[in-house]
Fold this protein.
Amino acid sequence: MTRPVPRPTVLEIDAYVPGKSAAPGAGRVFKLSANETPLGPSPAAVQALRDMAHEIAIYPEGSSRVLREAIGAHYALDPARIIMGAGSDNILELLALAYIGPGEEGLYSQYGFLEYKIVTLAAGGVPVVAPEKHFTADVDALLERVTEKTKIVFLANPNNPTGSYLPASEVARLAENLPPQVLLVLDAAYAEYVVRPDYEAGIALVDKHENVVMTRTFSKIYGLAGLRLGWAYGPRHVIDALNRIRSPFNISTAASAAGVAAVQDVAHIQAAVAHNEKWLPWLTREVRGLGLEVLPSVANFIAIRFPDRPGRSAAEADRFLTSRGLVLRGVGSYGMADFLRLTIGVEEANQRVVAALGDFMAETK
Ligand code: PMP
């Protein structure tokens, strides 16, 4: 039978499998599998959604101008150098489509966010992986793998699922040593959570280099994951290329309205940062205290390593925690089958996770 066949690289893609949803029926369930904020959205964003409801028969303003201006005002950026996407996944996809042609390479590091592989293949390109050291991107390893075919280097900083980050000096070294025709994509989805003085999300590098672009999202600290809203800040020529290929109304009026209110609610974001500053070290310490390895994280999640032993494996821990209404994320698709990723939750969720992990470790001795 003859039928339409997709381009070969499309069939090389293993479709992205999101973290489990919170299964009903196990009493109170905490979804700690997708790095969403435990504080929820800004109440002002929810109100903005209600207030715009009567507008939904009308197409959105195509360039998301009001939202770009609100972001520009908050981060002191030129709105003309911002583009909005339906989640930063959409921006990553546009970048790959715009810059990676058939046979050309998208480069990223070993435990880098999975979308880089997917969008490279979707564009017809070839994914190239650089090894990491201590679950952290390695600038030298990345630079060594740059070839004449490399079009984009993707770097999540901080990275998901490891929670590791590269200090500003290392990211600058990467930018300075890349050939000028290679685009460096700094994916700063978790930037707001990082409180280290040696961290920089990428704005300074975008302003310095013609081949650096930064991506951001409203899905994480801003609490708007369900609305699908992300953005990029880059040189004019990159933003221009992306604007040419994005779909004309890729951002809904609802997402725009909520985004404007969310970005202006500074107090809500400060509360989320404070919550994370308290519970990230607490969870790291408590889980380590149970004898489990926890990768050092600067984001709103931790990767916990389980022993490769029957009765104590990550898969068994996952089942045990799920039965207690605690939904974590297996990261086997990253080649980290002995880890589970845990999103920092509300206090009750965090306490329950530690208690449940304590029982798991005790029961299976
Ligand atoms: N980058 C990283 C590093 C992420 O972890 C995620 C969310 N899983 C994204 C980008 C995409 O987020 P969104 O499309 O919701 O903006």
